[in-house]
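Researcher: For the annotation table, I need structure tokens for Glycosyltransferase. Please keep the output clean. Sequence:
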Amino acid sequence: MKLGILITTYNDGDVILRCLDSIYNQLDNLDFPIYVVCVDDGSDSPLTYPHFDILRIRHSGRSYARIEGLKKILSENCTHFLFLDSDMVLPPGFLKKLKTVIENYDSDAFIIPEVAFSSYNNFWTKVKVFERNLYRVDYCKESRNIEAARLWKVLSFPGFVEGLEAFEEIQPTILGIKKGLKIIKTQEIFIYHDEKKVTLRDLLRKKNNYFCCMLESGKCSKWDIIKRYYFFRPHLYHKENLKKYIRHPILAIGVVFMYLVLTLNFLWVSISKNLIKKKE
């Protein structure tokens, strides 16, 4: 076994350094080789980190950056690879446990739960952290699954979708499920995910950009987008999450309101795009 780890970054400041440190601090006494590549997608201040391979490219978007990083993973003859976002942090002992998970389960890919956190304490940040942590339940079913498998056998990986700059991390999982690959969710390891500061305005702006990218790319139909997100997500109705709603009713109401606003936003973006096409 040789593990490749792929991270992409763009103007992430100290956030990316925290991610890289969480990997580097676990390298001692590992009994398998690791290759780490961080693709700097044209940051204003070039990333430097002495311990890992830093690949700097012209700013082209995260999907292209991941494709370029994957080429490096392949050139290093890795058997498995893990791809991370710059705002993720590996908990202590993660890499040793990861090897055990790979050895204990014959699977093409693994969905690893994400534990959301933030140092900010405003309402919408609390709502987003609460919402993200709803997906920690042990659930993985068909292509409506919203979580991305981030740990893959290299030979099984269907590839990143070139040119897709929104929700691109889940597309390999969806393609893998459609191909009949074995993808399981493990509860034996987890990854920390920093939500940073969330405001409703910024969230709307971010999702608006995502929806525009997906609709313009033509990679997913409108119905495919809708049925995978928001109220169609099966995780939301898991019995463990129903208990959380009772314990935290204000945050649960916040999630419902957030989903309603984002759904209306998606419908508005979709209608606007159709009107523009008709005028053209």
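Researcher: And a one-line annotation?
Model: The CA atoms of residues 4 and 35 lie 5 Å apart.
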